[in-house]
Amino acid sequence: MNIQLKRIYVPKAPGDGLRILIDGLWPRGIAREAGAFDVWHKAIAPSRELRSWFGHDPARWTEFRRRYFDELDGKSEAVEALREEIAAARGPVTFVFASRDTEHNHAVALRDYLEGRRRD
Question: What is the CA radius of gyration of the chain?
Answer without folding.
Answer: 14
